[in-house]
Design a protein that fits this description.
about 290 residues; Double-stranded beta-helix; three-stranded antiparallel β-sheet; binds succinic acid
Length: about 290
């Protein structure tokens, strides 16, 4: 897709695997139905949309997010116990505002799909660059449809009906973080999802794995962990990955139903600040 006659913005694919950049659109202005539908079509075709040259307040990001669904809250609490607001901040800062690589800032540096520990997990996430390191701090996206399609037939058959337990508690463990609090576990008890998920809009099968997984139902833990890890390793091979090198003003919106993602610690996390606004849109029950 490219600039349609009379359309003020361009949609340019970033590659065959995924990704398109959209230039010439000001997301802090109201959008009409035609534009919203064009964005939605591009989102389904390309999975990752990069809106260039934006300068959004939190309110403007929330308003843009609401064109595509209901914003999610987050289970994680601030140190004083408060639930994070719908537009929250992804950063690598300690409580005094200094950059740090301590595990509480690196949960998002492990492959995951957002909020798969929810009974109804996320459809999309939107991340807007506010402050970037001088180089690096990329976000990597892995195509889990390609991952599924390239599995041997016998593996596809073996895993066809497996169900996987996902939990916030397992996520905290898998990322080397402080254990989930009792309030967090109460808010987000473990849930199960199919290991092979069907994308509700495209009908394509994808692998639904990542750092929020605990185990496969009915399988011994070590066997289960080995299988989940090997599927995640397979679908995050470099040939299935798009690396987003952030530019000032980028807003990136991606499809959690067919991608895994993670931030890349390819910058000095103890020296440089990396700050982004994040909103997440509620999805539907995986099948
Ligand atoms: C996320 O996991 O939602 C954020 C990814 C990033 O920090 O690049």
């Amino acid at each position: 897709m490219n600039a349609a006659p009379g359309r003020a913005y361009d949609i340019r694919p970033l590659g065959e695997l995924m990704g398109a950049e959209i230039e010439g659109l000001n997301l802090s202005e109201a959008l009409n139905a035609t534009t919203i539908n064009e964005i939605l079509d591009a989102f389904l075709d390309h999975h990752v949309l990069v809106f260039r040259n934006q300068n959004l307040t939190k309110d403007a990001q929330l308003a843009f997010t609401k064109y595509f669904g209901e914003p999610e809250d987050h289970v994680h609490r601030t140190p004083s116990g408060k639930i994070l607001p719908p537009v929250h901040i992804v950063n690598n800062l300690d409580p005094s505002g200094k950059p740090t690589s301590k595990p509480y800032t690196t949960g998002n540096y492990h492959w995951h799909t957002d909020k798969s520990y929810h009974a109804v997990p996320s459809l999309a996430t939107l991340l807007h660059a506010i402050e970037l390191p001088p180089a690096g701090g990329d976000t990597l996206f892995a195509n889990t449809r390609r991952g599924y399609e390239t599995l041997p037939e016998e593996t596809k058959q073996r895993i066809a009906n497996f169900r996987v337990v996902h939990s916030w508690e397992a996520s905290r463990r898998n990322t080397g973080n402080a254990p989930a609090t009792e309030a967090e576990i109460r808010d987000r008890p473990p849930v199960t999802h199919p290991l092979v998920r069907t994308h509700p809009s495209t009908g394509k099968k994808t692998l639904y794995v990542g750092m929020h997984t605990s185990h496969i139902e009915g399988m011994p833990e070590s066997e289960s962990r080995a299988l989940l890890d090997s599927l995640a390793t397979h679908t995050t091979k470099p040939e299935f990955v798009y690396t987003h090198n952030w530019r000032a003003g980028d807003l990136v919106m991606w499809d959690n139903r067919c991608l895994l993602h993670r931030a890349d610690a390819n910058y000095d996390m103890d020296k440089h600040r990396r700050i982004l606004y994040r909103t997440v849109i509620k999805g539907s029950l995986p099948f």
